[in-house]
Amino acid sequence: MRSYWIPALATVLMAFAGPAKSHAQGDTAPASAETENFVRGFVRFLAYHEAGHLLMAQIADLNNNPDWSQADREDYADKFAMILLRPDANDPDGLEEIVNAAAGWMQVDDTIVRNEPHAPAGQRASDILCLLYGSDPEAFADIPEMADPNTDCVGIYQEMEREIREVFQDHSGEMGQEINVVYARPTPGMKAAHDFLRSSGIVEDLKDDIEFDFYLTNKSSIQAISCKGRIKPDSFYFDRVRAASPEDDHFVITLCYELIDARLKYGMKGFEDEAQ
Ligand SMILES: [Zn+2]
Questions:
Q1: How confident is the model at residue 28, as a pLDDT?
Q2: Alpha-carbon dihedral of residues 260, 263, 266, 268, nearest 10 degrees?
Q3: What pLDDT sits at residue 11?
Q4: Residue 7 to residue 142: CA distance in whole angstroms
Q5: I want to staple 179 with a disulfide (CB 3.0 to 4.6 A). Which of 42, 186, 207, 213 is the partner?
Q6: Where are the beta strands (DSSP E) in the chain?
Q7: Cα separation, 146 vs 9, whole angstroms
Q8: Cα 18 to ligand 1 centroid, rounded to whole Å
């Protein structure tokens, strides 16, 4: 079963081996299926990261914890995404996606990404791999060479997994509020991104995963929209839209078609292309 995920892991190792440019040089354009696999993993991770913010806000109210910096919250949302997406060792598609998410971060040039206060991209990548290793150190024995050897990945994974199970998840079998899904009509040029997102099933998977494991008390939505001219288009967002009383607050995850479009066009080399 390992043979399934070793090729994807090799991609990550290549990214570790040197600057993205060196291995991109002279390459022909990646096969479109390859690019799509990469984008699917990367976009899925980002969408689940926003879901981490939503659950932190709606269930545990962690956003108001005065001991937490914004960087702490971002780190927690990444860990949340990783736990929700944690693939089994015998799930080649899930493994490929999560490794692609890490590979995506590895390709990011921090100097041109304006999504602070997230951790540096390389750090986010190695944190993903650390948790993946920590989830099953036997099956993923090859990973720790890449993660920081002084980090207790197994301990971090187990603590986070327990926290999500005990603090966040609902074990009553009851369903809370359903998540409302909206695909806004794409603006010109964004149709490919819209179609890709729809056919990926990422939004529907996220909706199901959240509704199944967590009890939502508030109106919650995932909206895919063209962001240009409204908000910064190269990102995904979480917002709490305040109402007169907190129980009417609306929790919204926004996925910008533009982010998906850029990744589909440029694949893993996109971030350096944009820098020029
Ligand atoms: Zn975030």
A1: 42
A2: -170
A3: 55
A4: 13
A5: 207
A6: 179-183, 219-225, 236-241, 250-256
A7: 10
A8: 27
